[in-house]
């Protein structure tokens, strides 16, 4: 059995397949969060720069020290088209980790997007660029470039454990990460969830199914209603 590299930079890892990424891109992040057991959603502090931005792709994980982007530059030299840079910036708000120059390079490299548990800058230029960027906010301060970190090791970003190669799905609601090994098994449940929600909305619009059928039973189970009692 091949032992994983103990170097701070891991060059090889198994990515979620392009076929799964393409199929997953058709679903909202909320659908994946639900069928994944209501887990995998990054903290709401990590938001898209524009609501129309969407991401689907394998995670290329980066751990940096607060306010230093040396390892992000290294990761950009290694990442493949379609990868999503997912950066554990320790939720630092004192300096930006990436701006217009780096994001323009990411777009030219064919990356699928950037998820920053840290800050960006050059907001107006990034909005014009249109490249998908999710971050905790903007800060005009620039970063340093001299502190080591790690590439393609497990990280924690937005309160979620993320491994390189995991599936990243992001939209206006935020970012969800699904374990690579689990991603394929969620596609069918996701499709069924979409169909069920569409049917529920159709029922509401028709006026026939506005109140959830499970509500009374749930209220009884919670002790709000007595046995046999209804709203």
UniProtKB/TrEMBL annotation:
InterPro entries: RraA/RraA-like, RraA/RraA-like_sf. One of its GO terms (molecular function) is metal ion binding. Signal peptide: none annotated. Its cofactor is a divalent metal cation; Mg(2+). Substrate binds at residues 99-102, 121. Pfam families: RraA-like. The keyword Repeat does not apply. This is Putative 4-hydroxy-4-methyl-2-oxoglutarate aldolase. It comes from Noviherbaspirillum humi.
């Amino acid at each position: 059995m091949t032992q994983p590299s103990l170097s701070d930079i891991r060059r090889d890892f198994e990515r979620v397949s392009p076929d799964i990424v393409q199929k997953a891109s058709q679903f909202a992040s909320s659908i994946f969060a639900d069928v994944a057991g209501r887990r995998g959603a990054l903290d709401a502090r990590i938001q898209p720069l524009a609501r129309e931005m969407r991401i689907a792709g394998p995670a290329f994980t980066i751990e940096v020290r607060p306010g230093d982007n040396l390892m992000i530059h290294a990761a950009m030299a290694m990442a493949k088209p379609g990868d999503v840079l997912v950066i554990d910036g320790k939720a630092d708000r004192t300096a930006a980790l990436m701006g217009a120059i780096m994001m323009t390079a990411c777009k030219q490299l064919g990356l699928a997007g950037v998820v920053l548990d840290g800050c960006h800058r050059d907001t107006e230029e990034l909005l014009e660029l249109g490249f998908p960027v999710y971050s905790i906010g903007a800060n005009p301060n620039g970063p340093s470039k001299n502190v080591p970190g790690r590439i393609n090791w497990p990280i924690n970003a937005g309160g979620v454990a993320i491994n390189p190669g995991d599936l990243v799905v992001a939209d206006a609601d935020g970012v969800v990460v699904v374990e690579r090994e689990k991603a394929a098994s969620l596609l069918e449940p996701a499709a069924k969830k979409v169909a069920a929600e569409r049917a529920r909305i159709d029922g509401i619009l028709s006026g026939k199914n506005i109140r959830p059928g499970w509500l009374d039973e749930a209220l009884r189970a919670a002790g709000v209603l007595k046995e046999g009692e209804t709203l």
